[in-house]
Structure formats: C-alpha cells, structure tokens
C-alpha cells in the first residue's frame, strides 16, 4: 500500500478538524457576543449600546477607536448600586456617629450629631451640606488610610439594606455588571467616577465590579504622610481635598485619567457635566442615564428625590443624544438575586 | 504495506516537531530573559533587580506577588531623563516667559521675569520657590488643558538640550527604558510619580516610556470645567492644586493608585519618602536610587546640586536596603544614541 494517500487522508482529517474547531469557536464567540447582556431586554437602549461597541471596535471602520482610548466612566450611587432610601455612605456615617458617640458627649447637644443619635433623619438633612461635611470629618478622618479601609470593609460586611435585608454590595445592578464586563471584553478600560468617597469604595470595587482601586475616582479628603513609631503611614486629615461631583467630575477625569472618555454612564444631575464632557467631543461617543422607574423591584424616583435627583439631565437627554434606560422596561433583572 | 507504522511515524514526527518548537520557544524566552537589561553591566545593581523580579513572579514562591499588586513607581527628572543643567520644565517656563513677554511690559521691571528676560539664571534662582511658582502661574495657566498640551508638545518638538544638542525626549536613560519594559513584561504596572507638572509629561510619556497618561502622577494646578461658545473645556487656573514631591509622593500614590507600590525608583532626596513608603511594608519590596557619577557621558552630581539634590537618601540607602546605581559603573550605555 502506498503511504501517500494515508498521509493525505490524515492531513485532510487534521485540516477538517482544525476547520471544525475554528467554526465551533466562531459560533461560540458569536453566541457569546449576542448574549453578553442577557439581563437587558431587547429595545432601543440595548441596541444603542451594542451598536456603539460594534462601531468603535470595527477595525478600519469610520468610528474605530484604538483600545487605549476606549475609556468608559461610571457613576456609582444609583448607576451601579442602589442609592435609596439613602446613599450607602451616609448610612455608614450615621452608624459611625452612633458607634463613636460615647467618646463625644458634646454630640448630644450639637447638630447634626444630636439628630443622628435621635434617629431623626429630617433633622440630619436639615443640617444641609455643612452638617454632612461635619459628619464626614468626624467619622472619616483622624485615622490612617489602612485603618479607614478596614472600618469601611468591616461595616459593609455586617450591614444590611433596610428593605432588601441583604449586604449593600449585593444591591448592585446585574445589567450594569454585564455592561461593565461587556465593555472590558471589548477593550474598554472601565472607571468609577463617583461623588462618594474614594476610600470608601476602593476596598470592594474590584471584587464587586471588577474595577481595581486605581480606576476608582471619587471625592477625597486631604492626607498627610508621617511616621508613627518609626512606621510610615498616611493620616486622613479633617479637610476636604476634592469634590468629585457635578462640574467636579470632568475635572476629576482629567486629573486622574488625563484622557477624555468616549462613554459615560450616570443616573442623576450630578452626572450631567460628565456626560456633557464625554459626548461633547468630535469623535464617537456614548452617554447613558439610568432612569429609576421600577418601584416594585427597586425604586421609582427622579425630579424630587433627595438622593440621585434627575431633572435637567433627563430633560436634555434627547437633545444630547443620551440613551435613557427605563429600568422597568429595559432590565429583565435588577439585582443578581432576582430571578432571571 | 501496513499503514499503521506510517501513521505512527507521522505522529512521531509531529510530536518531535512540537517538542522542537517548544524547546526553541523556551530557549528564546530564556535568552530574552537574560537579555532584558542589555545596557546594564553585570554587578550588584543588575543582580538585585533581576533577583527581585524573579522572586515576586515565582508562583508558589514565598515572595510571590499577584500581578495586580505589582505596582512600580518611577520618578522622572534625573531618574528617567536628564535634569541637568536644569529641569526641562524650567527651560520650558523660561522660554515661555520670553515668548509671552511682548504682551507683558510690566515683566521688564518685576522679578523673576526681569531676570529671565536678561538671561540671568542666578537672579531667577534667587527669586526662590515663590518666583518659580509665579513663573509657572504666568506661563502654565489661563488656557485649556488641550491648549497647554499642544504648547508643551510643540516646544518639546523644537527645543534641544544645550550640551547634547538633541531633543529632550531623546535624553532618556536607555537602561531605565529597558527596566520599564522588563518590569512590564513581568506583569508590573509602571507609573511615573514626578514633582514635575502632570500635563507637561502626559503628551509624550506613552511614546517615550510606554507609560500611558493615566499612569502619570505629577504636580498639578486647579482646573475649572466651563462652556466656551457652548463647547465644554477644562480651564487651567492660576492656583496650585497638588505638589507631588517629597512627602507629597506617597500622598499622590495613594490618591491616584490606591495601592502601595512594591518597587520605587528615584534619584534625589525628593524621592526619599516614596522609597521609604514603598520599602516600609512587610511584603517583598524594592527601592533604587540612580546616582549620577558620570560627568563624561552625562553629569556627576549629588549633595550640592541645585537640581536633583541627593544627600539624605544616599546616606540612608544602605540602612534601608536600597540599591544604588553607580551610573558610570553600572550602565553600559546612558542614552539610546550612545554606542552600545
């Protein structure tokens, strides 16, 4: 028997096998592609996201953006996790005031602490921004960064949401987790750009969102480098360093990233300038607002909300070409623990 | 003829081929490994670097560090590029004063501008930090970030070093370029942490060092987000935001990265705290100082230098276990244009 046909046969089988593998992989890749956002219902919001990602990743296409420039910024409160009935960090601050009250007898008679200790939320809110800042200074400073991170992490591991009775870190939006992963799978670098405190978020964003500490931008207090018993530490000082909200968001983005994002995701008027900055460039861009319309599965709020007020940004979304997510309609699931 | 031996033969050849490919690749990888720092002479500095990288990348080893935590920070002036006879950014500021002088007749009679216009460097330096800040404010602010980046980039494209007669961006240290690449090839994220202005560096660090804008930390001035003719811009304000030098470096590292580095590289007392912070942790760590000892190929300076003064950090290097590079001895080449 001539060995050549055998060799040919083996080679042919081998090539067929390779081709089969290639087709299978292509099919899997394709299936994965259409399935990257399983918790999003079909509709204009999902289509707009998928189309944008397709456009900027299409090599040689008119809207192609090199991977290094695929910067996407996400607000946190109300965009990635639940911000009702109050910002999680505010719940943290209230608990910290109560925990530290024994060492501060003067708090019994001074606002906003008096109201906090009396569980009088109206009184707390009446103290306004000044009162909130005082509370932050009293509870978020005077320790090292490491110590504060431990305190925040410990509190988050024990505390539960009053309505859902689950840890706050489980009250993240499943469709947004999928969106973060989908963007990263398409070469995007995903950042958090939040009005919340940067060191309150950093201990858990990598595990929960896949966003590492160096990609978290937030409000901050000043720090001082010093030696304590010969060991270097970073002390948190009772002084505001930077407020990463409203027109602070584009400033924070430039400070920390030094590039203009091509996609931005928010849910309130605090995100207006970030979306305006992102979608105001000449190249391809994408802006999205999460509109909380689902009182049953989460909350329904916008113009009159104390937290996450959405008014001007909602009005101007159509004019600016921003995609508005109708939570009730567009999201198959809200939280990871919801039934699919 | 029985086809089985043929098949066996083909399979055997195929396996041999695979084995051969594997060995070749291993050999190439190995060769690359020992050759990653070709501009470093054999000696304690090179050995210490290679050993550290080996230790922290060895899976299952006692000093293994997960890739996400492999943060390496580099000073810029005097560590990555030449800082003599003066900081490049100071040369830039002097040129900007001269270029803008016609619009500022008052500069003819006010310091430090008067000295700048008279090419009197002694007079400029005599104006101290106050004078330098005034000069920075006058030449680095009042325009948008984008405009400033253009100005810096344009100046760098035209200006040449007075001694070497080459663009400043060519006066980078070849051994340090190799070190940056070597660390990145081993899973490190490389950051610049410089006392220089962050927006002066960002336009060129990616091309020259392979460090993208979001991994550049530096001193900064305040910015304001505003609309000019309906278009959003970030205006640079005449107000210092952050000085990323000395004890500002660990603060900057925490602000921007939120992780403690495991390796830090500097050349002056301005880097002392960064090295102290980096090498003061309990895990594996590495600190290195470039000591400028080579008047022939570059410059020789340390304790008495106006720029890049190296005194305390040099004295304390042995005690702290910091590697000191003797430029003359340890570097085969200084600049990329030097003969290998």
Task: Please work out how many helical segments of chain A DSSP would assign.
Answer: 13
Query: What's the helical proportion of residues of chain A?
Result: 40-55%
Cα gyration radius of chain A (Å): 24 Å
Mean model confidence by pLDDT of chain A: 93
Encode the helix/strand succession of chain A as letters: HHEHHHHHHEHEEHEHEHEH
List the helices and strands and how they pair.
The structure is a homodimer of 340-residue chains.
Chain A: H1 3-34, H2 44-57, E1 71-74, H3 88-100, H4 113-117, H5 121-126, H6 128-140, H7 145-158, H8 174-185, E2 189-197, H9 198-209, E3 216-228, E4 231-242, H10 248-256, E5 263-266, H11 272-279, E6 286-291, H12 312-320, E7 323-326, H13 327-330
Parallel strand pairs in A: 1-2, 1-5, 2-3, 5-6, 6-7
Antiparallel strand pairs in A: 3-4
Helix pairs in contact in A: 3-6, 7-9, 10-11
Descriptive account of the structure:
2 copies of one chain form a homodimer. The model of chain A has no long low-confidence stretch (mean pLDDT 93). In chain A, strands 4-3-2-1-5-6-7 form a 7-stranded mixed β-sheet, with helices on both faces. Chain A has 340 residues and is α/β, with parallel strands linked by helices. Chain A is 44% helix and 15% strand. Chains A and B meet through helix 1, helix 9, strand 3, strand 4 and helix 10 of A and helix 1, helix 9, strand 3, strand 4 and helix 10 of B.
